[in-house]
Amino acid sequence: MVLFKRKPVRYLPHPQIDDQESDVWVIAESNEVFTSYDAYLERMDFFKSKRFTCEVSGRSGLTFFDALRSELAGSREIDEAFPQALREPVLRRVQFSTVSRIDNLVEDVFNDFKNDFYPGELVTVILDDASRLNGRVRDKAKFAEVKGQDGSVTREAFSRYFVRLIDRPDEEALVDDNHIVRDRKVFTKQMLRSFIKNTVTREGWNGAPWLVKPEIAERFRIDTNIPPHLQHSNKVAAKKAEKKRDSEQGEGRKNQQAQHQQHVDVHMPPPYHDHYPPQVMHDPGLLPRSWGHMQGPPPPDWDPYYRVPGYPHYMPPNGHYYPPPPMPQQQLPPRVVAQPPPPPPPIKYPIDDLDIEPVRDGTHRPTLKFVTKKQCSDPKLSSHIIPGLKLETVGLLLETWNTLNVYCQVLKLDSFTFDDFVEAMAFSSPEADCELFVEAHCAVLKQLVNAENDNGGAIQISLPDLPDPDEEEEDKDDEEVEESKPPTPTPEPEYPAKRTRSSLNKVQFAEPEPEPEPDVPMVDHRAAEMFVEYGWVERLQKRDLRDGGWELVMVGLLHQLSGRPRVTRICNEILSHLAPLDAEPTINTARIQYSTMDINLRAEALQIICQLFLETKTVKNFLEEMSNTMTHYRKIKIEHQRARKEAMARLKELQIERRLLAPEPEKSPSPMPELEDAMESTKVDDEDISIPDSEDDDPVVVRSLRRGADRAAERKRKREEEQERKEKAKEEKQNKGSKEYQKVLKQIEKEREKIEQAEENIIIVDGDLREADCPRTRVLGKDRFCNRYWWFERNAMPHGGLPDSSTADAGYANGRIWVQGPDDMEREGFIDICEPDKQAYYRRFQMTPAERKKLEEGSTNLNSAKEWGFYDTAEELDMLIGWLDSRGLRELKLKKELNMQRDAIINHMEKRAVYLAPREESEEPSTRMATRTKTYVSDKTYRCLRWKNLSALAELGHRHVDPLPKPRGRGRKNASYEDEKVTRSSTLSAAGGPVNRQGKPVTRQGTRYNF
User: Fold this and answer.
1) What DSSP state is assigned to residue 827?
2) Could you tell me which residues belong to the region Disordered (predicted)?
3) Cα–Cα distance between 209 and 94 in angstroms, integer?
């Protein structure tokens, strides 16, 4: 806006015009209206005076119109030049700032943003080879600093950016702060200064905050409610209160001093001259006194503060003044001091996640990956899409895979990866079977009905009844009986209250309403015709599952389950494909139709029988056994913890004892033996020396004493003996202390080994407890928008699957962090809130919860519990941990759990990446396979074909799909799957059971669970 004397020009308000026919004069640039021509001319003269300043460019000495045109041109230039991605962050940084000088404000903002980049911004990426590529920031993630236990910073805070390269449209670069820069001309201090001056204003009083212009704040949804402590009225009130408080403190000090003087009880004797009568003094002839005959001095000029009414103001002859006599205490009215309102209490974190101020720096949750085409909008992430997979099927596949792996011991199934399971569910070939797909169905079906030699083939689940022909005949008989009964009299028609001839005719001749016909469900399949002679229960009891047998059992089971209203629709949909009306109701039809059924119906069918499996008594017994096992493991863990505690206490005592027995360092260390010998030899040589004369060149030999050398040798020998005796005594003393010291050191080492062993045992028991925790799958946590995060390997299964599985070389089970959207109740309570709550939330944060969810989650949103996404790289996991805010209740728990499990999650993510990497041709030699009976499909094309059910071969001697082995004759052996048994036996221990990497049995409890 145009400035006049450094203040914005104030425009005149529109006048009240009563007569609509009167003439008015308008200044279009300022939108001012005048009813008087003189006022109009006066205003125009003021606007044409060259006393205005352009706020954007800072040019002064302009007319109002020139300054306005300069501002518009400068604003247009700034809007075109300043980066669009930086506008909102800069404005939010400047809003309510109290830095008075704009130069200092520009300096602070520039330092904050020169190394910070935002999505949508054009940048330059510096590669490792120092080459530079232009790109646009697509995504940004901030990582907070990590501090150690001692408070030191182990990792500085940093950011990572996904940059789409302009010259390489199909490539992206993941860079950090050190490998990304801006163009120097894009973000400069001069440009930033112009942008700030163009978009913010500031009032003239001292301490006024910078405020974004209302129209710009509305466009970027920036809060314009000035905080109370920054408002001018509050500032003025605070200054007045401070002055009043200072004055009251001064008056209080004066009042306290006066009250102190009034309360001083001084008992002074009367002046000494009062005891003597007055005497007349003769004038000694000097000059007359200036104030008469020895009269008292004039009263002193007392300060009014010290004057007391009724006190005689005179000075005694000795020249000393006395304090005034005490006055009766006066009751002063109490003063009421206005106390400023207390500051709001500090927020005690953690609080609800959605009550935390939104982060508006451009960061959002890492981009999710999807497996359905409906959710994936980015073509670059389409490599994870499963063809034909529906949105609702993802949860069914995860639930079914988790159930089969958790209860793999009950089902006698080898563990398998989720990727192999999905590939097996989508595998379709009428000539080749996928063993993983077949064995999963057969293992579950065999748990629903016992074999005919096991408890008479009892059914382990409750099934609805099928309609019988006899019941239909009984229904017909009941209908005939009802027809033979006398007819029920027809009720008389109701006549209206006001009867007329026409109304009576309408009632009498009205046709009766037709009775609604009962809805007869249309059957669009021929499932019932497949079991005329041989029922599915009998087939399952006899374990006749080969060559389409288990597919026919599935048809019969689903046909009978269609009587349950909850699954009627989906059962009929599956049966319409397995037993269509245009195909013969034979076992071959069921086999062919099942091989061509899509993955969605397959997942529905397998999930239905898995739900039935969870209702069996076998699962209940298994869960009880797991509960008892967990109790046993907890007791073992307590014992290890107690042993560790005792060892630590003993170690503390030994450390004190070690410090007491530690040898003290010698204060005056003895010289080295070599130095002692040199000193002795020097002394001996001094006994017999030649002293050269200062005058004569020839030395004069001094005659030594008799036997002087012998005496010197004797003294040397005695000194050596004394030194040896002292060293020996010292060594004995030191050896005695050293033995005890060494003994303590050995005990300390033993206690440390005990502590390490106890900690290792605790870790092992914790792993056993985790694997035995089967009742339910535990979620990692929820984020601020109630999205659930799952790591299915967290409990109830080994992290990498069973170590003796046929695909144990994969080294992982699922290898992904799965994200599930919020359910309906959570969405209604946290996101889709009522209108009053939505408005209150908008006034607080300038956005609704739904808008915040869309902003902070980025382009990949999950709107319901049926929608799933995942992360499968370490970078995405770290970015997720950095995005979570530990000030929120939900994200605090989730972040803590992710940090605890981070290493294990990343380890199995990396193993999954290695397992799914395309294998080279030379990696595995090709083997010759017999293909006379079935078409051979290479396991290099389909990894799921590598899976073999070795658990069933080891425990049953055959696969689930194979019939029960016949009793062997004398002298003959069952040669079926002998090769697989030999291969399996090579992995067993000497005790006859499989062992894991620690040498323990592979089961969670140490033994197989047999039923």
Assistant:
1) I
2) 225-268, 322-345, 458-521, 656-740, 960-1011
3) 9
Most confident of 141-145, 507-511, 838-842: 838-842
Tell me the one-letter amino acid at 372: T
Q: Is the pLDDT of residue 343 over 80?
A: no
Amino acid, single-letter form, for residue 108: D
Containing 700, the helix (H) or strand (E) segment is strand 700-701
- The 172-176 sheet, strands edge to edge: 172-176, 158-165, 132-143, 122-126, 180-181
For 645-683, write each residue's pLDDT tens digit. 999 999 999 999 988 887 765 444 444 443 344 444 444
Residue 772 scores a pLDDT above 70: yes
619 burial class (0-12, 13-18, 19+ CB within 10 angstroms)? middle
Q: Tell me the torsion sign for CA atoms 892, 894, 895, 896.
A: positive
Mean pLDDT score of the chain, rounded to an integer? 79
What pLDDT is attached to residue 706?
43
Segment holding 606, helix H or strand E: helix 599-613
The DSSP secondary-structure symbol of 861 reads -
H/E run at residue 122: strand 122-126
DSSP bridge pairs for 172: 164
* Residue 214 host element (H or E): helix 214-220
Q: Rounded to 5 degrees, what are φ and ψ at 449? A: -135, 130
**Owner of token pair 């091989």:** 595
Buried b (16+ CB within 10 A) or exposed e, 398-435: bbbbbbbbbbbbbbbbbbbbbbbbbbbbbbeeeeebbb
Q: How confident is residue 537, by pLDDT bands cut at 50, 70 and 90?
A: very high
Instruction: Show the CA angle centred on residue 364, arms to residues 360 and 366, nearest 5°.
Output: 165
Rounded distance between C-alpha atoms, residue 713 and residue 681, angstroms: 11
DSSP state string for 876-888: HHHHHHHHS-TTB
Residue 1001, SS3?
A: strand
Q: By three-state DSSP, how is residue 133 classified? A: strand
336 burial level (CB within 10 Å; 0-12, 13-18, 19+): exposed
Task: Name the residue among 14, 313, 75 with its Cα closest to residue 199.
Answer: 75
Of 379, 381, 375, 366, residue with least CA distance to 394 = 375
SS3 134: strand
| 3-class DSSP state of 173 | strand
Angle of helix 435-448 relative to helix 418-426, nearest 10 degrees, comes to: 90
Q: Which residue has the tokens 């601020």?
A: 784
Q: Quote the pLDDT of residue 47.
A: 92
CB neighbours (10 Å) of residue 20? Answer: 6
Helix (H) or strand (E) holding 870: strand 868-871
pTM for the model = 0.69
Torsions phi, psi for 813 (to 5 deg): -110, -55
Is the pLDDT assigned to residue 852 strictly greater than 90? yes
Take residue 295 and report the two structure tokens written for it.
């009269």
Provide the H-helix boundaries in 369-468.
393-406, 408-411, 418-426, 435-448
Q: Both tokens of residue 813?
A: 């089970």
pLDDT at position 306: 44
As given in the structure block, the two tokens for residue 495 are 């006549």
Dihedral (CA of 83, 85, 88, 94) sign? negative
At residue 880's C-alpha, the angle toward residues 878 and 881, to 5°, is: 65
Q: How confident is the model at residue 925 (pLDDT cuts 50, 70, 90)?
A: very low
Measured torsion, CA atoms of residues 683, 687, 692, 694, in degrees rounded to the nearest 10: 80
Higher pLDDT, 419 or 127: 419
Whether the Cβ atoms of residue 801 and residue 417 lie closer than 8 Å to each other: yes
Q: Write down the pLDDT at residue 508.
A: 56
* 3-state SS, residue 132: strand
Is 878:375 a contact under the CB 8 Å cutoff? no
The structure tokens listed for 305 are 């503060």
Looking at residue 448, what is its pLDDT? 95
| 338 backbone dihedrals φ, ψ, rounded to 5° | -70, 115
